[in-house]
Known about the structure:
CATH superfamily of chain A: Dihydropteroate synthase-like
Shape of chain A: globular
Largest sheet of chain B: 8 strands, parallel
Oligomer: heterodimer
Number of domains of chain A: 1
Number of domains of chain B: 3
CATH architecture of the largest domain in chain B: Alpha-Beta Barrel
CATH topology of the largest domain in chain B: TIM Barrel
CATH class of chain A: Alpha Beta
Amino acid sequence: MPAIQIPTQKWSGKVRxxxxxxxxxxxxxxxxxxxxxxxxxxxxxxxxxETPHAPVVAIEIQDRYPEDWxxxxxxxxxxxxxxxxxxxxxxxxxxxxxxxxxxxxxxDLSGDYARKIVRQVLDATGLPLIVFGPGQVEQDNDILVSVxxxxxxxxLVLGVCEEKNYRTIVAAAxxxxxxxxxxTAMDVNLGKQLNILIxxxxxxxxxxxxxxxxxALGYGMEYGYSVMERLRxxxxxxxxxxxxxxxxxxxxxxxxxxxxxxxxxxxESWGDWTERAINWEVLTTSTLLExxxxxxxxxxxxxxxxxxxxxxxxxxx
Amino acid sequence: MALxxxxxxxLLPGSSKNPEVKKHANCKECGFxxxxxxxxxxxxxxxxxxxxxxxEEESKSRLEASAAPPIRLITLSADGHKATAGNETVIFxxxxxxxxxxxxxxxVKDNQADAADVAAAVGAYTVDYVGMDLTLDGIAIExxxxxxxxTVKAVKEAxxxxxxxLTDDPVKxxxxxxxxxxxxxxxxxxxxxxxxxxxxxxxxxxxxxxVRAADGDLNALVELAEKVKGAGVEDIVLDPGVRxxxxxxxxxxxxxRLALKKNERKVGYPIIAFAGDDPMLAGQHxxxxxxxxxxxxxxxxxxxxxxxxxxxxxxxxxxxxxVQPGIYEINKPQPDxxxxxxxxxxxxxxSVANELxxxxxxGWLLVADAEGMxxxxxxxxxxxxxxxxxxxxxxxxxxxxxxxxxxxxPGHVAVLxxxxxxxxxxxxxxxxxxxxxxxxxxxxxxxx
Lengths: 317, 448
């Protein structure tokens, strides 16, 4: 009987390598940098091609105590969540690869305030930093420009950079040596289009991460899943404007969902709250990793541990 | 894989190298003017091969094989419950859709005192997700040195789900098959050591049979599958013997590619996958080609997210999930709470409902029947207009629930404001934000 030939798939394209953070040698102050991308295969198919860099996990911290977060999260982070610097340290101790600092929507957000918080976090941790505004164009513009100045040379990721405000954010990234998080609604062509607009302004492609948006499990995750799978296929087929690593925020999406956030008035069939909530976060995340995510932003340290374990298992071959 | 018309033509008398057959080229006996025309119709499934009286035997078997699905459909059943796997046609769900959702089985051991209780709990478990009742699919019973037949019998009495018999011992297998009489269980597994006895049992008791190789050795797997097929077993399930994330992903992907892209009939069967106690590994098997997925334990806090994951992955991308049009209450709204309009596309609905829920602000949602489209798409397609919204307002009895007469229109369809005011003269129409994420802020500042 003729032997079965393993059906391998060789691609012409490759995901671009992107490095977050800069050490003293490169004009920053980070203890280490994190590089993602470089794959010449669909996720974790080591018999098809190379995956030089494992996907990485960022932990989300906020600039002020997030009173509206699920009690499960507030309990596990405890007092650390009351101060961004100690929160960043705690996240690093739990094994995060990156810190994702999110500024909550607040009337007295200002450039000076954001500058102060970013400085505290940079001083508290040696990990590369991702900084997101509240997602409102005006406030994002105000604070991210100041953040870019304060973090000069640190190769921060600034987000979100979307169609409405990309000019301001990209200009700030260009001027101060940072990266941007290019976010679009879940759509292959919108994603490509924004990458083109950003690179037309002169920002090198190795300073862009693509953020195709995602929904939590049960809340549209399958759309994000398939859009990411299509983006990664396009990248491997050689479409340069899709060859960027992908960042998604399954933690934020999960913990907005009722299943994770609360145990009040939910059906008995939903089971134990903590078990359900952690499963919600890790399953949303693991499924997105299988479809091409390079950077995932989580909220719960137990999820961080489990997802890191899964990534390690998938990288071994 | 289905053959094209031209590929079929090469197998018909018109292309034959045998003069005895070739002389019937374009004989028109099939009812078509030429062999090529007939081939094209065959390719489109508008004609039957039996219409050609002169086709060669070898061609016939190749054509018949090509008509069979590339991954055989396997059905396990008991008492009206079924678990099916196979008949998949694509590698990625966006290429078309995945058809038969992975069946989730929970494992019990034959030396486990509460096996029947677990089976009963698994069988009784149901959870609502966007109006669908999701359930698990079956029980796998593992031979762990206890009383296998008695456990099978107890499980069968405790639940009406299909059963997988996990034993390599033909004696226990037969006892289990007898105890499972009246159902179609999966016998798991035939190995290089026991395949003759297992194949005989599978044939005698009409049960599908798993073939198991070690460490993802596909040649050994195919060899075993061919042997049991040669012994008369047609319904085969593959266990390539991998259990970890990395090898499972690699080997299951290779099997799917071989079946669909290489048209390799010898691996054209569904896969049984074992997830142990790791929900993320079960999730990988659901998304990446497991047909029957066996979990080591049952717990609602794990079953619910896995069932939702499965529902998501196996949703037809062309037919998005819709929510029922109607009035939805968020955060226990009172009559003075705002009434907001959105559409019944599930993602649109969830975006709006989620933002509201997490803001803690009470509100009413009027979910209009926009045939499952998002606000902007529905408006562009004429599925969300003033008339439809007014119809919703009037038929859902909104006025009775409210102490005010104000409606919030999604910002993306502000253009509908004038028409809507004409349709609903008693109402004040307000234009809300374009994006759901801006709703809480809008309500805090603009609604008073």
